[in-house]
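User: quick one
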Amino acid sequence: MHQRATATPPEPARRPGAPDPIGARIGPGRGARAVVVGAVVAGAVVVGAVVVGAWWAGGRPWPTTTAHVTVLAVIGVVVVTTVAAGWGRQRWTSRTWIRATVRRVRDAPVRYRLGVALWALLAAAAVAWDLASFTGASHQLPTFSRLAGDLTGHRAGRALALVAWVVVGLALALAGRKGPDRR
Amino acid sequence: MIALVTGDAVWAALATAWVVWLVVASTLPGLPRPAALGRWLVASWAGRLLGLALWAEAGWHLFCQRP
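Assistant: Done. Structure below.
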């Protein structure tokens, strides 16, 4: 039996990385790689900016105007980011969220409800003790900020705490959003 | 030598209770986990803004008030 000739001749082998016959040098996957490299570079720039900014801000102690303005500026940026990135992308409306929360706690097993109550109790105890220490204004009753001052009183500790605080703020701003609407 | 005062002991007890409960809630089934608390907070505008308000207050308290 003779084999029939195919309509198109087989493609000759090319050296790896050589341009294809029409001269295109951007092969499949190059665009995706460029996006990944761009994202890595952008991420490195953001991380670098946060670290440098935190080190700079870490050198500004708490009573200075610069420290107050810096913290207020970070809060402002995070709030603007929250609104800009989250507009139309919240998973639930606030009303649904409140109703679902009440229903979830009401209908949950006793074990779960006790867990929620214990979380709330621990948070309330910490806030109440901090307020009591603040109003007591005694050396015997240090506030949380005074204890934390052992860390934030030093430049490195303050910078580290600032980075952690910014990361939590950005997580609150960006996490949990649904994908953009495609209409 | 660090001189401990009454308030330090209360803070230490509170911190211990937090750590113990964090471990218990993270390991035993059927209890509300910390990650679930985070997901719950960011599920709507109301929760997200509540979280941001607490976050902003914590930052102001830590970085702008007496250390």
